[in-house]
Amino acid sequence: MNYPIWHLPASGGGLLIAIIAILHVVISHLAVGGGLFLVLTERKALKTNDQALLNYVQSHTWFFLLLTMVFGGVSGVGIWFIIALVGPGGTSVLIHNFVFAWAIEWVFFIAEIVALLIYHYRFGKMKSEDHVKIGWLYFIFAWLSLFVINGILAFMLTPGKWIETGNFWNGFFNPGFIPSLLFRTSIAFVFAGVFGLITAVFLKDSELRNRIFRYCAKWMYYPLLVLFITGIYYTKVIAPEAFENLFHFNPESKFFINALILSSFGLFGLGLFTLFRLPSSIQKLVTFFLVIISFTWMGGFEYMREIARKPYVIYETMYSNGISPADVEIINENGFLKVAKWAEIDEVTEENQLEAGREIFRLQCMSCHSISGRNAIKPLINNFTKRGIEAQLTGMGKVNTYMPPFAGTEIEKKALAAYLYEDLLGKETMVNPDYLAEQYPLEVPAFNSADDDYVLLVWNDLGMHCISDNEKYFTFLPPANTFNAQLFKRGDKPELVTNDAIITYEIESGNENPEERSMFWKYSKATFGVDIPLGKGLKGKSMNDSMDLHGNHFAAELIPVLPYRSDQKFNPYPMFTFKAFDKSTGRLLVETKAVAPVSTEMGCRNCHGGGWAWNNISGVADETAENILAAHDKYNNTTLLADAKAGNPKLCQSCHADPAVGAPGKPDVLNFSAAVHGFHANYMSDMYEEACNLCHPSHPEGNTTCYRGRHYNSGLTCTDCHGRIEDHALGLLAGQTGKPSADRLSASLEPKWLSDKSTIIPRTPWIHEPDCKSCHTNFNMMEDGFSGSAFNLWVEGFSELYRNRTDEQGVMCISCHGSTHAVYGAENKYGKQRDNMQPLQYQGMAGTIGTHDNCQVCHKKKMNTNGHHRNQVLREYDVAIVE
Amino acid sequence: MDTSFIPTPDGLPVSWQWFQVLLLFTFALHIILVNLVLGGSILALFSKNKANDFYVFNGNIPIMVALAINLGVPPLLFLQVIYGHLFYSSSVLMAVYWIIIIPLLILAYYGTYIYVKNNSFSVRWRKISLVISTLFLLYIAFMFVNNSTLAQKPADWLGYFDNSNGTMLHWNEPTLWPRFLHFLFASVAIAALGKALFYKYSNKISPEDKELQIKSNLKIVAFITMVQFIIGTWFWLSMPEVIWKMFMGGQMAATIFMTVGLIGALGIIYSGLKGNLNLTLILGVLQVMIMIIVRQYSRAFYLDGIFRPSDLQNSHQPSSLIVFLIVFLVGLATLYYMIRLSATSKNNQS
Predict the structure, then answer these.
(1) ipTM of predicted assembly, 2 dp
(2) Could you write out the DSSP letters of every residue in A621-682?
(3) What's the pLDDT band for A782 if we cut at 50, 70, 90?
(4) Predicted model pTM
(5) Nearest to A5 among B101, B102, B164 (CB)
(6) Best residue in A17, A19, A63, A74 for a mutation probing chain B (most B CBs within 10 Å)
């Protein structure tokens, strides 16, 4: 932000740093360990009067000098050059804070060089004890160089108290100083052993060669224990978040952890060959591989250190892109392009959007990401839509805390997303054609108020049942609509009929054979562990079947309804006809209709890409499903995509508990609602109901528009009852406190309806839902206590849910008011009155059963009192019916 | 000028003057060694007295490279402390050329080792190696001149918006070539002076040869200094008028140093032609110091209105400076001890 960025679209600067650093770091550690190796080996040769060994030390010194002083010395300057080119801001902080540490290191460096030059040029020409003294001095200064550099290197990952004090010594002797110093010293000795082999392997005298090989092996294996212990110790002093990113969360780290582990096995496994007398050619091969492995070992370790440090170049002080955390808020307010010194464009306009996006990418992202080289951006965003990329930018620094947050305004974020999607990926955003819902004919069943003796009220238990219909990849919502019904015998005092009746149902023509248009049955064994008979649901119900008695009502549970018709049309509201018969005589008592709201309009594709799976109308496409599983695998170390492709798709709830499907899940894993909402909430910001509409089939312009009841008509939105996405997620996550991911997901979420996060009441999904009485206090119409939101005012338990609550007479609220989200007086886009069949049938008006003093629907005499709840009769009606 | 794109510098632990003094002092040491290496390599290419030259001076070039690189660290460090925000920016603009310095320096360094290994490599290969090393060193010198001039002229950084690939050089800078040549010729003169000094203390050269070589090298010093009058004037006048006039009475101290430098140069020509090593040596080293100060003045004039080191924030943390000074003294003592031990300790068996 402060500095110009070196534009390296192909390779990225990080790769250059990595190449120079890995080469240098191995050699510079060798320069330390090798120093002790030289002097101790010389001493041993002198003590045992072993001229051959002494000759070896002399020739090894020459090799050592050429490698460490020339290559090691200059490549050290090379690191300095390259980090200043790729990350000048961070380099400047290190230089300015530790200028005298660097200067001290230089003193050690010059002493080291002079000692080594003397040691080499005067080998055999000085008194041996003086020569050994010079050797010791070389090692001491080399180790002191490491001592100083180690302080600065460790500082970058664990700056400790320096963050508050800014004090040199706090920064230098930081929490990582000791473990890092011991760890690096240990590996320096290991490398001394490995590189000692290089000179030895060319010795003609096989006895000497084998002797030196075994001697080098000691150098490799003696430090092993310290290396291991200090390595563990090192992981304990880094910030918990850094640990978490390194070992659990950052998918990038897996490769380098494996590189370190495999290199360790390689180094210490292959190293065992040095103990045996082997032909010279094999020893050469072993040496060659040990040297190569030394570099991969160091690469693995240094990369792990860098990954642990992410998203910072200096922990909690400066992000990898040179922006300091303290500046993010200022940048968000004023705009990144205005604050960045090296931006050519100041402000995003409609005309320059892509250009501005490119500028933001160059200045904010390119210090780590290349376009198609190392850490390339293209494959990272390729699975997302433009909206998805925008969401990724919103989520940066939140769930994936190894990325810095995007710094800039919302407009700048959109410009960056547009550049990435349209310019870099060369994709165009698909515009959904306006969806024209088919107007299916409606036939309201007859009802004769004077003669008919029975009233049958039927409803779907939910206002919408969604299906994640690509079972080939995953399932979290199978086809499973549930109807409930209450049968009343009309009279002055109506009776609730239960035992004496049978209720049957049948679906409208065109929807009878869902098995022809669904993979649910094909994958039921893999997903649910049982082979479900074709056409039947999870509880054995088919499209034409009878209901079962459940206490005060009848129910047909988990009917596998689909919105796909055999004529290839889409109908998310297929109509069912219900008939009640006298159990003993078989006489038809009453007949009515109700819709089974069901949709496959899953909004996953809005971010995860892919088209619609079914007739270009609805359903989760293969591409979408694969992208989702790939994302899950990336963040959670799962193999869901590979499993699915191997024919073994999973039920999401097999790990994520979910009361909706009665799944206990795994104890440490978040429940499904908390995981899905908690994760995705981090990728959305400043959104109201449009956040809900992105995923759920509630979008007013979508193919379902499931939120269609009376509340919708009166202007309430999803967030009025459920809170905004952040609130909603926080409530669910609060209900999962103690599980490892709950804290991580909620850490960056700020509540919108409440000011204090701690006041959010923990809730269990599907149990603790909004309470109607939050607004309808004592069943009044928003008279007392209406706060503008029902958020955080949950019902106490399952029986208190709107869909389960009954009055004192045993009449269920939902019987008369209609399904959730489709409360009577609903307007359905597939035929305005489609949801209002029963009110129209029984009272001729599409409002609550009994509204406008229509008590005669059940009561055969006029009622003057509020029998079921307050506010029923003798009131003024404003909004109640749909004409 | 618009300075809004110039990065905000970081603060210092102690007063900027510490760094300024350390910068000038260590730069003088570094540049003298660089001159010995670069000028020495050029002289070695044209050496007429190969055997003696090799024994006395040229054979030591790799050691001088090691020390030149090592002594390059502190001035580069102190430069970054004061001028880092300018230097990092200019480096990024020419990043590709800048980073190539590192592999070329490694190769040049190894090349000098090939050159001195007369037992392992043929004359032909040693010569080729020296030519390549010298060319690489010239490249490095040219890039340092580019970067130094670019760092002090932020107005020219705007070229970044046409080329952000790190391949921008300061071609349109009028002082680029005279400055490069001025440094290049100086390096040959200083190397010749160094050679004369090495000859003086060499113990296996006959007194006659010694005298001859000292004299001829001092002549090179004198002749090159004459050439430097021409190049130096070109360099001087290629600066903006407002700056070169600073050295002509525009700024008193700068004018005095420049004048002393000119007189010093005349003195070097005189003593060089006379064959007076001691005087030439003293004047030569003084001349390096004076020219470094003049260089510093010119930098300050270029940066007038853009940046003043005195504006840098000071966090007043002298403790690390004190530790450095102590370590520096202990380091010097150890160097002295090691060099003395190396010179005096003899292996009786050999």
Answers:
(1) 0.96
(2) -HHHHHHHHHHHHHHHT--HHHHHHTT--EEGGGTS-BTTTTB---TTSPPHHHHHHHHHHT
(3) low
(4) 0.88
(5) B164
(6) A74
